[in-house]
Write a structure and sequence with these properties.
With about 230 residues, the protein is mainly alpha-helical. The protein has one domain (about 5-210). It contains nine helices and no strands. Bound molecules: zinc ion (ZN) (2 copies). InterPro entries: Fatty_acid_hydroxylase.
Length: about 230
Amino acid sequence: MPPPHVLAFRGQDRAERRPSTRAAGWTHFAFTSLASLAAVVFAASRVERVRLLEALVVPGTFLFANLVEYLVHRGPMHRRKKLLPILYERHTLRHHRFFTREAMACESAADFPIVLFPPVMILVVLGGVALPVALLLFAVATPNTGWLFVATAMAYFLTYEWLHFAYHLPERSFLAQSRLVRALRRRHALHHDLGRMAHENFNITFPICDWLFGTLGQQRNDDRDG
Ligand SMILES: [Zn+2]
Ligand SMILES: [Zn+2]
């Protein structure tokens, strides 16, 4: 059972949110999944006869996305900036108050929008990041490199959304059962400790940059299992 201050915040948030229904939660999840998958499949379908050097765009994009995930989460999502204060408000003031370390799970599908990015974010990632970089790659490299960048970037975005979603499902749910998801979920639960959230475990997916920059938060002796 979530603590009283979390229950109170959740009640207020649900009352102010329109619509705050299970159907709206599932629609949001379906839109994020299908729109991202459509972008991945379309971009991948444009790739023809990849050369080895072109294929290196895939691991390169993966590492670049891991760095972006880390920097945006450590920066504007946890430190209020003049540019895009909405990131701090949605993440630190809302997501981290709705879900705390001892209350990580959604109570119903109506809570999914507090985990997922707003649907418009897909357009921001596609139009603001994936397409400009792809156009640059079309111009200075080859079409294959551009399409591989779009496919990998959108696949990474969806991986972020699905993993974060799995961490905030009830522990008994099917998606939260695998060993990998349980291990990553424990890391994210440590990040949901209010005393630690601004200091540790900024990677939501794979903790590569946390390891690289020395912000990997570990379970301590006085910790309960998250
Ligand atoms: Zn979270
Ligand atoms: Zn956070």
